[in-house]
Design goal:
This protein is α+β, with helices and mostly antiparallel strands. It is built from five helices and 21 strands. Strands 1, 2, 3, 4, 5, 8, 14, 17, 18, 19 and 20 form an eleven-stranded mixed β-sheet that branches. Strands 9, 10, 11, 12, 13 and 21 form a six-stranded antiparallel β-sheet that branches. The protein has a two-stranded antiparallel sheet with strand order 6-7. A hairpin with a 6-residue loop joins strand 9 and strand 10.
Length: 353
């Protein structure tokens, strides 16, 4: 037994000695990093940024470049003796209003096209700054009574008045006064001051493509828009699929420009608004009316042989009028020119067939 203990102790001492003399453990080996490029499914690659086309702000029509010039709003007469007018077929927008004696008068807005001659040009009315102030450009007219002129001169527009001796306005020999004041858009543009040289902002919302306009997408078919604006003004518009436009008539007669072109519009917008009298008077005690265009009211948009009802809203004189559908979303016009028919609430009407 003594011998066995000695042997066991010897073995233990030998094991301890061997362990004490062995090499320290090797440090762990860290492999070199390997970069793996993932394979990306081409279908999952982000699409390129969309290309936003350059368009004229008042028509939405594509162009290589928007010329840096202001919009020019011109007061155009629309009595029988004033027709056919010069330049109306080139306007980006035309607003039709009813003034004293129940006659129609236009605010024609030019920006993308600048015809050589415009006329006949007549005097301003109280609704004109409400219509044209959002353009922040020029307003051209033959004159006006002092109280109404004060409204124009206190607005965000630059007035260009024949009665004040502005250049570019002249009388022609083929019409009698006061229906013979005409003008040159090029001359008006040359008079723009530093505060009125910028292009206008978009007024109504315009779709990028005709098929995206609100009336063609969600409206109902129509062939004729017949207006009763006053006892003296009953214009109508008929859809013409050949030209893709609404064709204007004055009563039963086709509405023509002096150039021989038929007056037409891609979009016809109907705005119903109060048409109250003002403190301004006219001949024989007639009251000069205006339109209450700050607020909201009923609207109808006609595009591509289709119509859609909606609401108009205008927050202030300097803010553009906006159009909304029943869903609360903006009504989109098609690219092209627009005529706006201001229907006197309570006395005017629109019949759609």
């Amino acid at each position: 037994m003594r011998r066995l203990r000695v042997v066991a102790v010897s073995v233990a001492v030998l094991a301890t000695g061997v362990a004490g003399c062995s090499a320290p453990p090797a440090p762990p080996v860290t492999p070199d990093p390997v970069t793996v490029t993932p394979t990306i499914d081409p279908a999952r690659i982000a699409p390129p940024e969309p290309v936003v086309p350059v368009v004229w702000p008042l028509t939405g029509v594509a162009t290589a470049e928007v010329v840096s010039r202001p919009a020019v709003a011109v007061k155009i007469e629309n009595t029988n003796i004033a027709r056919p007018q010069s330049g109306l077929e080139s306007a980006d927008m035309v607003w039709e209003t009813i003034v004293e004696f129940e006659v129609s008068r236009f605010v024609a807005v030019f920006h993308s096209q600048m015809p050589d001659e415009i006329g006949p040009i007549r005097s301003v009315r109280p609704m004109d700054p409400l219509i044209a102030s959002p353009l922040k450009g020029l307003i051209v007219f033959s004159g006006g009574q002092q109280g109404i002129l004060n409204l124009i001169y206190s607005s965000s527009l630059q007035p260009i008045s024949h009665d004040a001796g502005a250049a570019g306005l002249y009388r022609v020999g083929f019409r009698s006064a006061p229906h013979n004041v005409y003008g040159s858009l090029a001359s008006f543009l040359s008079q723009a001051d530093a505060n009125h040289i910028a292009p206008p902002v978009q007024q109504f919302a315009i779709a990028m493509r005709p098929t995206l306009a609100s009336a063609p997408r969600a409206g109902t078919p129509a062939t004729t828009l017949a207006y009763h604006l006053s006892g003296q003004s009953n214009p109508s518009w008929t859809w013409d699929a050949t030209t893709g436009t609404w064709l204007r008539s004055e009563g039963s007669s086709a509405a023509m420009a002096a150039s021989g072109a038929r007056l037409s519009a891609v979009n016809v917008v109907s705005i119903t608004a109060p048409h109250p009298g003002t403190v301004f008077g006219a001949q024989n005690g007639a009251v000069v009316p205006t339109y209450d265009l700050i607020g909201e009211g009923d609207a109808v948009v006609a595009t591509a042989g289709m119509v859609i009802p909606g609401r108009w809203r205008k927050a202030s004189q300097d803010e553009p009028m906006q159009l909304f559908g029943a869903d609360g979303l903006p009504l989109l016009l098609a690219p092209g020119n627009t005529w706006v028919e201001l229907i006197p609430a309570g006395t005017g009407s629109l019949a759609i067939s």
